[in-house]
Automatic annotation (TrEMBL), chains A, B, C, D:
ATP binds at residues 15, 76-77, 106-109. This is ATP-dependent 6-phosphofructokinase. Belongs to the phosphofructokinase type A (PFKA) family. ATP-dependent PFK group I subfamily. Prokaryotic clade 'B1' sub-subfamily. Signal peptide: none annotated. Substrate binds at residues 130-132, 167, 174-176, 227, 252, 258-261. Mg(2+) binds at residue 107. It comes from the Bacteria. It is found in: Cytoplasm. It comes from Dokdonia sinensis. Homotetramer.
Length: 328, 328, 328, 328
């Protein structure tokens, strides 16, 4: 390892995800292990522009591994999208003697980091923190596993009341562009139908399927709907449509919403965060830059940030088949 | 004890609540203990009219104490509101040799039971099962404690993301006429403001309070809103209003919804259900009718159904004071 | 209110309990509300002797309401049991300008406070924080409700495996002198037998009962045992005895242990803590001393510390009956 | 697909694991999807010998996906280890017209299936259900993810009280031969030390490390110990040793025990179970036998049962490094 890194900064940016605190902790502790100074940046890129820094040592991250959210806070920063903004950020980093930075966030975060590096050559290393699991180059993103469990536990509760009252529920889960949460939480919660952005089921087929299900003796149903489902209707519009076209059902709606972003991370996310933090710091120490840390086949990996932001991870078609079979 | 009861029926009616299964189990096991036959009625009063009965013994309720919902299902039944409907119900009960019935539900359920008893003298005994805690004559209704914890755990998660992003969240909890859930879950979740049906805070005072809170350095806030809050605006309207009048805040909305009705009951609700089932059956055995079982000062009590349905339990004003002080 | 209180201290002492942090928070915020300075004392009475104080304002208790344990830490302090120790404590309090102190803990904590007050007339106010629910003068102690739910959730999990393997489990829960946790968690978890310190079931009756239960077709059983059960055998000895005397059973043991002391407090405990903190500070402001804050019939109450420490709250005999009936 | 399978049996055997019910459900629903009869066998191989069968259709597995344990029950069966026993099993299967069987369990289960197949050529297909994650040929075994989360949640609670009282806790988790649970739960819970069967830390190094940790200012510590840790001491012996050799610590012990086997499965385990059930039935339909279904790099895979039982999956050494760095 080259020994150029004397001080490393870490920030969280974009939508928050469970496990971000665990990832910060890992970056901080890895720095401590290698006797590198570590600096936390508040509110993502905003804090870079405001030089809103805090020195972090092993002790300062005590007790955060199981906390949801990010104690460094997160934000979307318009100023960093301008050359002027990035200039200020660079000056602040230099002034503070920082040699490299770990960026915890999603593709917006990484795009910012790439541009910044291209202009100033400043070493950046990404950690994919987002519940959506929509980043190339890692088996799973940080926070995704926790969000799945939060969604499934909530739907389990909704199922109790759906079943008691013979009702049909449309449950909206997060996922504007990708259906990872919907398909997994849907299968996990035993949903009768799952609507994802990747597949257009067509509303008529949905209604037919619900009718068939009713006839076969099912009295209650859960339909899990990703925010960005292909049918293009909100859960409220779906309810109205079904209300009009399927009289036998008593239809209700539940939008799980932002609770999916919070909560104590699962064991998987805590371990993943710990591994990623180590890899991020060690990669910077090795003189690398512009990579995203991830796991591929459960082994630590580096993916060029350019590739990471290129496309969304595809939905596993096998899961759609499994879902179809499970709801026979 | 008089020994007239040879067969007792039990049903769940109205909105379901966690602990209903535990209460059915208790009725069934108490019957078994006293060697009384027990019959479950499906779908509330609907099942009475359709003679949709099932024999229940100690074994049939194995493993239900920790399940949310009600395996006997619940429904609102219009036919039972007519004299003709109640005639059919009476005939079905008589034909099945049933001597008394335990009604698990809320005030609608009890009102039905009272009318039925007044017409046919059929022994009825109520168990207050509703998450709203709005029934006179019991310290707490069945399901209320569980709903409070479900709400608080969800708001804890929302707080994580609110805090990470310096946001203001309006979180709607159940409670159309009473603010019990809102005030308790609000205090429990450390909400900055709590809007209940019993008090008109006034939207301007709310905005002022949020402004003051912002100035005092608070960067994120949770406002818990009961469905039936006195300001008379939905959480979505509240968001719009604050968006217009409080520019510094990034405002979001979360409607907790039906998940509050489900989930495995807390220890309190399971024990309460067990106690109420015993008391209900033993009261019928003693020749009593038209009472609601409850706990008053944690001792088992009987309240005439007429009183139980008369008014809503009042909000504890002390809690409003506590809430004000906590959010200094 | 008299206005003598300018500065109030708060400490946690004895075994920790969920909700202690929420109670500290409430004391701090109530002080802030009344513009009284508030000082936290670390490690119970130990911190009084070491003048290990920290100034606490409304902000310093942000985010602690849902955290288990006590951030002020707790300890048992031998030095405070000596007159010399208490002299030092008094000097430290006086030097720091503290006018009164809130003691969060159990009967040992209160006994210390009483002696201290009798010697120096220093105003003390108690908040009952202990999972055992064994303090006179309050409906429930702080942490008890959470401990019940922790125990029930753990036993639910054990039940899964007991049932899958047709096993008998002895599950030990906390409660050296009182069976409150055992009887409630036992009923809540649907235990077949519950052994408490208050009643001597006799081991032969236990074995008979298990035999009967086996013959009646039950294939798995949970026996919940309080640490201090009257039979006087540990769960391991019980297992050995049953292994020898009941061959048909495959017997296992589980000691829930210290996890019962931790965890995020339930809504009930958070609200109770908030109410108690307000009452404690306001009572000191009114010139009162030597009381324990509590709720009696869900209304705030003050009980002289002398009475609070006198006896244990009695086990509700009704619960033993309910337990017997439930396990028919 | 060849169409020889008219009737498929499914059983669960060995130690139970969360997700077994979800796997049974998936087998049943996949059979229903392909119009194959499905038969459940109670109590593992025991039920084969007793012809303890139950017909299962899509409806009979409603509501089991989120239940811990196995409703078909599990057992270890000595009779099946004899040629005579297997003869009876074969006769019973033939008599019932069963064409193939899905075995959900661990290596003992698979060994039995292999021998059975070698003698009678009866088609068998394995699903790895065990919390220990010690089976070759799958990324993870069924139930492992849930057990990790159960352990981490329990240790989080223990941490609360450890930290409040400045204590050292030895927490024993499951894992007689492999340290997968210990290393992951240990990292996830932020343990200071983790003792696994694969590495002999040496008790002196442990004591040294704890001493160093104490000197560096850490006041409380969690040491996670796998049942079969290499030091070869039980948690109770470890406590005694440290009590004697490390006076500054107040040491406690907690054995998590059987609760790790129960509980509602995580989303991951529910989805994994659903996928495995589909693959198992479809593989039997394709005329395959003697394979274990699994996921390799998150793609469905078949591993010959012979290989699956050959060795334990190795501990990921990277995790040991991560653990060392995290506890700097």
């Amino acid at each position: 390892m080259i020994d150029k890194m004397k001080k490393i900064a870490v920030l969280t940016s974009g939508g928050d995800a469970p496990g971000m605190n665990a990832a910060i902790r890992s970056v901080v502790r890895t720095c401590a292990y290698y006797k590198i100074d570590c600096v936390g940046v508040y509110r993502g890129y905003d804090g870079l522009l405001d030089a809103d820094f805090v020195a972090l040592d092993a002790r300062s991250v005590r007790g955060v591994i199981n906390k949801g959210g990010t104690f460094l806070k997160s934000a979307r920063c318009k100023r960093f999208m301008t050359p002027e903004g990035r200039k200020i950020a660079y000056d602040n980093l230099t002034k503070a003697g920082i040699d490299g930075i770990v960026l915890i966030g999603g593709d917006g975060t990484f795009t910012g980091g790439l541009v910044f590096n291209s202009e100033y050559g400043f070493p950046v290393m990404g950690i994919p923190g987002t519940i959506d699991n929509d980043i190339n180059g890692t088996d799973r993103t940080l926070g995704y596993d926790t969000a799945l469990n939060t969604a499934v536990e909530a739907i389990d509760k909704i199922r109790d009341t759906a079943h008691s009252h013979d009702r049909l529920f449309f449950v909206e889960v997060m996922g504007r562009d990708v259906g990872h949460i919907a398909i997994n939480a849907g299968i996990g919660a035993g949903a009768e139908e799952i609507l994802v952005p990747e597949e257009d089921m067509g509303i008529d087929r949905l209604v037919e399927s619900l009718e068939r299900s009713k006839k076969s003796g099912k009295t209650s149903s859960i339909v899990v709907v990703a925010e960005g489902d292909k049918i293009g209707k909100s859960v409220f519009e779906l309810k109205d449509y079904v209300d009009e076209n399927l009289e036998e059902y008593d239809v209700r709606v539940s939008v799980l919403g932002h609770m999916q972003r919070g909560g104590s991370p699962t064991c998987y996310d805590r371990v993943l965060a710990s591994r990623m933090g180590v890899k991020a710091v060690e990669s910077l120490m090795e003189g690398k830059s512009n990579y995203m840390v991830g796991t591929i086949h459960d082994k630590m990996s580096l993916t060029p940030l350019e590739e990471a932001i290129k496309g969304k991870t595809k939905l596993n078609k096998e899961l759609i088949r499994v879902s179809d079979i499970m709801t026979t």
